[in-house]
Amino acid sequence: MKFERWFPWVFCALLALFPLLASSLGLDFYVGFVRRAMIFALAAASLNFILGFGGMAALGHAGFLGVGAYALVALSDAGIESAWILWPAAMVVAGLVAALIGLIALRTRGVYLIMSTLAFAQMLYYVALSLRIYGGDDGYNLMARPSFGLGLDSADEATFYWVVLGLLALVMVGLNRATHSRFGHALMGLRDNETRMRAMGYPVFKLMLVAFSLSGALAGLAGALLVSHNAFVSPSAMHWTQSATLIVMVVIGGVGLRWGGPVGAVVWIGLEELVKQFTEYWHLPLGLLLIVIVFVAPRGLASVAEHWRLPRRPRPAEPAGAVLTPGEGS
Amino acid sequence: MSLFVVNGLVKRFGALLATDHVSLEVRPGEIHALIGPNGAGKSTFVNLISGLHQPDAGRIELDGTDLTPLPMDARIRAGLSRCFQITSIFPKATVIDNLMLAVQAQSGSSLRFLADRRRDQALLEAARALAARVGLEHALQRIAGTLPHGAQRQLDVALALAARPKLLLLDEPMAGMGPEDSERMTELIHTLRRDMAILLIEHDMKAVFALADRITVLVYGKVLVSGDVETIRNHPQVQAVYLGTETTESAV
Amino acid sequence: MTTILFIEQMLNGLGYGFMLFLLAAGLTLVFGIMDVMNLAHGSLFMAGAYVAAHVHGRTGSFVIGVLSALAVVLVLALVLEVFLVRRLYGREHLAQVLATFGVILVADDAVKLIWGAAPIMASAPALLSGPIELLPGLMYPSYRLLILAAGVLVAVGLYLLVNHTRVGMLVRAGASNRRMAEFMGVRVGQVFSMVFLLGATLAALAGALMGPLTAVQVGMGEEILIPSLVVLVIGGIGSVRGAFVAAMVVGMVDTIGRAFLPLLLRSFLSPTLVSDLAPAMAGLATYALMACVLAFKPAGLFPARG
Q1: Quick one: DSSP state of residue B116?
Q2: Which residues contact A282 (CB under 8 A, 6 or more apart)?
Q3: Could you give the CA distance from residue C241 to residue C163 in angstroms, rounded to a whole number?
Q4: Mind listing the pLDDT tens digit of every residue in chain C (306 residues)?
Q5: What 3-state class would DSSP assign to C123?
Q6: Which of A294, C23, C140, C205 counts the most CB atoms within 10 A of its CB?
Q7: What ipTM was predicted for this assembly?
Q8: Do residue A287 and residue C106 have CB atoms under 8 angstroms apart?
Q9: Which C residues in the span 20-79 are in contact with A, Cβ-Cβ below 8 Å?
Q10: Enclosing domain of residue C117
Q11: What are phi and psi of B16, to 5 degrees?
Q12: CA B160 – CA B109 distance, rounded (Å)
């Protein structure tokens, strides 16, 4: 079986084993760290779906994370405890907000789309800032982590870790299936030649809106998981610089490549943590890194890895990064 | 009995009258050519028919359905399909994927998220049939952008055929083609005639005279004359417009 | 009494609008002509504010402070253009977002290294620290009048530059059709650099002028960037006229909204609710405005490009 097919599962198994090994290796702290990385992997994957596969440069994704987080906080305060209600609810709310924003933003293209999604996310940020009941600028503490029932203790770090891992795996499988589905192909068609898609009779706006809303809903899930993980939410998580960071993750990992989101999230968060060990001024080296990446590996680190392997023959129904293989000119 | 009727179509861009009360009709099974010098407004006219622009006045009717108020995707469902002057395919995908995408638009909803499209036998069969129709059955796995120009144009036509149109709008299909490719395309268009009416916009007069049943000549956005091939070929005003002879009177 | 307040707020709105215009004009030219998405524009604004505040503090002269800010940022912008922005022409927008976001990160930490994380003091010039009586009963801070004056001067200057000089003609040609301009022999590279530097200077001026009014701190560039982009979207990319109109509208809507919305809401909502909702709604006003404009004109009010 090909490397790409089995490696993710092996890696998943390794991730699953990690909490068990962590205490014996003295790495207890890192269980939470890896968990956070996985949550961002989910967020980045949801962004990659519309950005890489749909060609929609949306620079406001952190807004939907925030919506999911605050929705969870609001419902949790209202007395709902079960994660299995809170998390789906957060998804629904985030998805709806995404749909509303998409109704207007998706009428624009290119730079206008970038900027209007950016501005709408800032709008959400200001709404969060004004929510005095949820702490406004200071943020808000979540009293208790959503419960799982079924005899599982969500306060146990390892248990929560495995649930997050399970959700991430589920989402990645789902997104992968979606990429190969009719919808996925239609989305990529929109990315590659919107005019022709329209001329072939596709309901372009509807398809984009559905993709955008789904992506927003998944981001909402990531937001809900994040607030469950941190037991804290603040509007700063929705600031546009956070959205830009998500884009950075996707681009680093590889826009439109299957694992672009997760790879990018892990790399970025890992680097952030690493650099923080040495200096408090970690923005500087990471900023420089971004600039370097733009010129050295513009299609993301996953594309650099591609160069080290044998050239592939074009496979049917190959999503996104199907580059022209050497030797076949046009 | 006309299949496709355009009546008094008008389009202004600011002060420019791009389409000046154009009327035209295409009969079932007919290849109707639209010719005219550059800037005559042929592209605008095609865009008006396909739905990219809204006309300022006039009516467009296909097989009894009034297309005028309909948006682009509705016109396609009504049986209209078009090819573009500049090849418009999906260059990064394989030929079979290009064709499946075209077929998919016509066969049910695209809002299916979990089933793997590669397993959809109906789509695959339809796509293969399309490829065979235009002569691309041996190139299914090739990346579309790597095909030679002529083959890409063939693919372009195939994508339009997936909609099983009643009327096919061909916008300069011979554009940029050498003699061999042109002949192949001419033959292809000829075979299409059994299943649909064709409105052919072309500059390649050889192809026009070989294919067309009737011809309409457009000059400065206005119909100069419309009729069968012989009439047009010998029409003094048409000759004047194309060859610039001294006999030009109030042709325009 | 309320009329005085209203006039005062209107003047504030105009002032804010002019500052937004300074930023948006540079942005719209850089986007419109060079098709470059430069998120670091806000960082140039920040640099202008910091340098002006610093030099003013050291020398006691506001004017020298402003001039130093312009000079320093000009040099920074030159370096940025030559080593980075120039290589971003023709790249897809995401790559530009990424690279310029990297610049933001670097700039933020650079400022933190030099001046520390706490906001620094920027004071208005001593001459202009008092109010002036514009109308009987209307006392208006003289410094804000300076801002208005500066804004008007820049607006007129830009208008003359863009519409009545050869350079401006080149700029407009480039904004509407870069390729065509290239074919017609315009020294595109030079025009690009000039436009970028002009934009940077305007941003620095805005930063230097606004320093005394707002907090000079790390992240101020990112804060003003979004309203500037909103102005850009509403006005239409590549159009200085659009940027002006949009900046004025946004400036007024934002300022007057913040001032009067609480009053309006207080008439039918409880005070606690008002103090929660009013700032949010006022902040939202500009975005709602943008949403309305985009709903009808997805390319802005006066898009220069087709």
Answers
A1: -
A2: A272, A275, A276, C109
A3: 10
A4: 578 888 888 889 999 999 999 999 988 888 877 788 888 999 999 999 999 999 998 898 889 999 999 999 999 999 999 999 888 887 888 888 889 999 999 999 999 999 988 888 888 887 777 787 777 777 888 888 888 999 999 999 988 888 888 777 777 776 666 677 677 776 777 788 888 999 999 999 999 999 998 889 998 998 888 889 889 889 988 888 899 999 999 999 888 888 877 777 777 777 777 776 777 777 778 888 888 888 788 778 887 654
A5: coil
A6: C23
A7: 0.85
A8: yes
A9: 31, 37, 39
A10: 2-296
A11: -85, 125
A12: 18
Residue C32: CATH number of its domain: 1.10.3470
How many structural domains is chain C composed of?
1
Residues 6+ apart with CB under 8 A from A163: A83, A148, A152, A154
Say which of C98, C226, C275 has its CB closest to residue A251: C98
Q: What is the C-alpha to C-alpha distance for residues B26 and C211, in angstroms, rounded to an integer?
A: 70
Asked whether the beta carbons of residue A182 and residue B88 sit closer than 8 angstroms, the reply is: no
Q: Do A177 and B116 touch (CB under 8 A)?
A: yes
Structure tokens at C216: 């000079």
Evaluate whether residue C245 is within a structural domain.
Answer: yes
Give the residue from A104, A74, A65 showing the smallest Cα distance to A239.
Answer: A65
Contacts with A202 from chain B: Cβ below 8 Å:
73, 105, 110
Q: How close, in Å, is residue A230 to chain C by CA atoms?
A: 24
- Does C306 reside within a domain? no
How far is the alpha carbon of A314 from chain B, nearest alpha carbon, in Å?
A: 7
**Half-sphere exposure for B168 (CA within 13 Å, toward CB):** 29
| Residue burial C93-129, b: 16+ Cβ < 10 Å; e: rest | bbbbbbbbbbbbbbbbbbbbeebeeeebebebbeebe
